[in-house]
Protein: Amidohydrolase family protein
Amino acid sequence: MTTAPDLIDAHHHVWDLSVRGQDWITGPELAPIRRDFTLDDLAPEARAAGVRATVLVQTVTVAEETPEFLALADRSDLVTAVVGWTDLTRPDVAHALASLRQLPGGQHLVGLRHQVQGEPDPEWLLRPDVSRGLAAVADAGLVYDLVVLPHQLPACVKAAAEHPELTFVLDHLGKPPIASGELEPWRSQVRALAHLPNTVCKLSGLVTEADRATWTVDALRPYSETVLDAFGPGRVMFGSDWPVCTLAVTYEQVIDVARELVGGSDEDVFAGTARRVYLSRVGARSSRT
Structure:
């Protein structure tokens, strides 16, 4: 595999089931990842692929996870940034964010994420208490990752419009229905989100939204082309979604698939966008997006 210089993986996870369970890993189809995945597992594969920095992303809505991730980043020469979690609806969310910044590794906190995909209210992002929390995230100079399902994209558009000072990062292209081959209404909704300048999209999660047994690069292409056209390479970034991606491909293969979809090793997609959106915030205390 031909590697690109300064490749940044903008989305991966780790977990230790002896510390806490991952309640989303259910059903026989997820059995292969129902085990521990650590940085010791990832690091050799990442280095071999030419990855020089990664962004470690929240997995569960448990307050203790983010301090653990920050401490891990502080000890790592691979994990450069952390997208963590705190309860956006708590009245003292600004204090909570400041407290996270004071922890060991707190300088690596660059963003927050909530499992919005699991919220029954399709307009959860528009609730007044959540909106107040999003404003605090912006005031702290952090970004907000969106892990949502297609029917929640209209609320993402409204939230991004209501908070122009906050950068919203759409994870996994908004989980389009790749397995069924449908494009609408996902495509129109993604384009509406991309129309807002404070939005970014991760080229991640495609292989596991597709049929994991029969997927092809050509089946993924309409979805990657949609976001590359809508956002432009300067607002798209590669993320492996390791170890979830291993349900369908190896770490090396997920990078190769992304390169094939992009048409090469585009510097923005594979490093520049992640550097601007995430890595530039490492060590920052309070700055507007």
The two ends are 36 Å apart (CA to CA). Residues 165 and 289 are 6 Å apart (CA to CA).
